[in-house]
Amino acid sequence: MPQARYIETRRQGRLKQKIKQAYDLMESCCLCPRECQVDRARDQTGVCRASNVLEISSYCPHFGEEPPLSGTQGSGTIFFTHCSLRCLFCQNHDISIQGQGQRAQTGQLASVMLALQKAGCHNINLVTPGHFLPFILEELDIAARNGLTLPLIYNSSGYERLEALKILDGIVDIYLPDFKFWDPDIAQKICNARDYPSVARQAVTEMFHQVGNLKTDSKGIAVYGLLVRHLVLPENLAGTREVVEFLSRNVSPNCRINVMSQYRPMYRARTLPELSRQVSALEYKDALNLAKRSGLSTGD
After folding, report:
1. How far apart are CA 166 and CA 10, in angstroms?
2. Given a cut of 90, is residue 2 above it in pLDDT?
3. How far, in Å, are 15, 61, 159, 251, 264 from residue 21 at the CA level?
4. pLDDT score recorded for residue 299
5. d(CA 99, CA 149)
6. What distance in Å separates the CA atoms of residue 194 and residue 297, rounded to the nearest whole number?
7. Which of 154, 201, 173 lies closest to 33, judged by CA?
8. What pLDDT sits at residue 180?
9. Counting runs of H as helices and runs of E as strands, what totals does the chain give?
């Protein structure tokens, strides 16, 4: 099994450099594409509502992730409070938008990572972590010093700034981004982020550049690589054809994708009539067939 990438990066002394780079991005905050430029060190908050203290909502061995991630022992999933995207249909809106969670003391996240490793989890799965990047890297340093060796998953909305992703080169083993929308007008209506499609294209391309196609060990457990999630939406609001064609042509013809069917109207989704129903079986089947015809690996 390959060694987790952050171990060698830390041994070379580069993890400390990356922590400083991440804090530099947070000083006048531009960790994400919103570029709010608030002073997080002075407890000012921007769109995501995150401040100068790490906040954790929950953590557990998670058995509902993709099979290469959950395996038999679960993915060591850590949910962070807040989110920069704030989608109208967010199923975790109590965490991402309403801010449910607890402020963490120094060393607490490191202890959580080590506890999940001790529980037998296959990996450490950081859910929506970008707005807390400097704190997470500091805690990773502590955890690695105390014996953390599991692969690190960066589980993201896909709305990531390139400068922040480049800091993660040599840190993250498995990237797990969403590719939510292709049409800027749809992205603007659903999450007030017209630039989401262009940002996601750049982000997924950079992620692939860092880790390549998804690779698994002899037991089928992911050890490194890219796995893209795409949630099918009613009325083709997600632009599935364009998304899968982009991944196949511009990222990798062997890119692994999870085409997901579980959309249902949550949070404020019903404020848009086209989002007020679940996806039909035919809509999902058509989306899945598009992915297969593009040559992408759907993990069937």
Report:
1. 16
2. no
3. 10, 31, 19, 27, 39
4. 80
5. 30
6. 29
7. 201
8. 98
9. 11, 9
C-beta of residue 208 within 8 angstroms of C-beta of residue 250: no
Distance, in Å, from the CA atom of 92 to the CA atom of 62, rounded to the nearest integer, reads 15
* CB 175, CB 210: distance < 8 Å: yes
CATH code of the domain made up of 5-293: 3.20.20.70
DSSP letter for 70, please: H
Domain boundaries, the chain: 5-293
Query: How many angstroms separate the CA atoms of 125 and 77, rounded?
Result: 4
Q: What is the pTM of this model?
A: 0.97
The answer to whether the CB of 195 falls within 8 A of the CB of 181 is no
Q: What is the CA radius of gyration of the chain?
A: 18
Q: What length is written for the chain? A: 300
Listed in sequence order, the residues at least 6 apart from 299 whose beta carbon sits closer than 8 Å to its beta carbon are 66, 67, 68, 256, 257, 258
Question: What pLDDT score was predicted for residue 55?
Answer: 97
Residues 21, 154 contacting (CB under 8 angstroms): no
Residue type for 34, please?
R
| Residue with tokens 């965490």, as numbered in its chain | 95
Neighbours of 249 (CB within 10 A): 11
